[in-house]
Amino acid sequence: MRESPRTSGEWLKRFPDEASCRDYLEKIRWPSGVQCPRCQSMRLWRRRNRPVLKCADCDFQISILAGTIFQDTKISLDIWFQAIWWLTNQKTGISAIGLQRAVGMKRHETAWRILHKLRIAMVRPHQDRLTGAIEVDEVFLGGENNKQLIGVAAQIAGKKTGRIRMEKITDRSGPVLQGFVAKYINPGSTVVTDGLNSYCGVRNQGSIHQPMKKPYSWEENGGDADELLPRVHRVASLLKHWYYGTYHGRIDPMNLDTYLNEFTFRLNRRTSTSRGLLFYRVLENAVAKDPRPYAPKKMSEDTPHCM
Ligand SMILES: [Zn+2]
Question: What is the whole-number distance in angstroms between the Cα of residue 55 and the centre of ligand 1?
Fold first, then answer.
């Protein structure tokens, strides 16, 4: 189903109320129609005020939200939909205070929690690993008090950067970096790194390791280290720009991975001309997720002066 709104006007017409959001979710979850799990009937009644379908033949009730990130939510679906729309339609995303203002929410904490859950939903439940030739490196994010090491993998697509993966890592040891490669890159790929020894073991994972050595008298000739692995460094520079531009470097390290999800989602879809499709993708992931309780450690990102 690709029937997703393309503009704000279309979006408002498409989702004028709670029932329209519920119908849309139902179609994403069960594109071929809903079948009663008890009696296999496909005759189901829709409840006007509840996200529940009732079997016309055996009275069995099916929750539209159970098993999705919306399960047990006290927030109406149209607020969730608005949040997804704002999150996917702003080029650099939206902070909690920005969302609170845009949607007219009373509590900053509610906006923050919605965004936290949606960022988790920005990664597909069974995300595939990268294949082909991939540059891998580590970059630092943050300042003295919240410095974090991030593993970055960027697919080589001719002269361009293909898809990326990134994750917070603890250190540059062999087990950590090889673990990162094993998680995000398919065996049989070519892993291009700098000369760091920690990567040597990727050969044992069935990949080809291609360490880039600096040419003789590289520094003397004004060589830029970034040129050895240009794609990961371009990604790192965009990441830093986003981290300081949208969040003023205030992301709590405990929740950093969810923000990296969002960055990865945006970057991997940067050429998509349809914002509506991004909206659809997040919703699609949201209904495919297991319900999880809110688990943020604490809120530190986007305090009111951040916008
Ligand atoms: Zn039934």
Answer: 5
Angle (CA) 72-78-83 rounded to 5° is 90
Look at 100-104, 159-163, 188-192, 222-226 and tell me which has the smallest mean pLDDT.
222-226
pTM: 0.83
Ligand 1: distance of its center to the CA of 70 in Å?
24
Mean pLDDT of 42-66: 92
Ligand 1 geometric centre to CA of 19 (Å): 22
CA–centroid distance, 60 to ligand 1, in Å, is 5
Distance 67 CA to ligand 1 centre (A): 20
* Cα–Cα distance, 237 to 152 (Å, whole number): 12
> Ligand 1 centroid to 56 CA: how many Å?
7
For residue 54, how far is its CA from the centre of ligand 1 (angstroms)?
8
Residue 135 β-bridge partners: 154, 192
CB contact set of 210 (below 8 Å; sequence gap of 6+): 133, 190, 191, 192, 193
Q: Which domains does the chain have, with CATH numbers?
A: 133-250 (3.30.420.10)
pLDDT of residue 117: 92
In angstroms, rounded to a whole number, what is the distance separating the alpha carbons of residues 205 and 219?
Answer: 33
| Distance of CA 31 from the midpoint of ligand 1 (Å) | 19
Contacts of 96 (CB under 8 A, 6+ apart): 108, 111, 112, 115, 299, 301, 302
What pLDDT does residue 223 have? 56
Mean pLDDT across 263-286: 87
